[in-house]
# Entry
Amino acid sequence: MIRVVLPAHLRTLARVGGDVELEVEGNVTQRSVLDALEARFPMLRGTIRDQVTQQRRPFLRFFACSEDLSHEPPDTPLPDAVASGSEPFFIIGAIAGG
# Structure
């Protein structure tokens, strides 16, 4: 079971109150986690990554095990602690402005 922590605006859109738990088949990668997330919560399609290019949206970041994984290739395996469910996969809304 994979745990995903969403930013507040995406939790509201998905109508969830806390962490999301997902079953992921095969290798646990950013792509497989996001595919499972969008399958379970179709209203999130296009909010985390572009629907056509599958690229991460500019003001979102991915973290796991205290590491920024935002620029990792989407098919790179996530850390074992995320795959085992002992650590969550974080989707963080970036803060921008001046």
Summary: The chain has a mean pLDDT of 94.
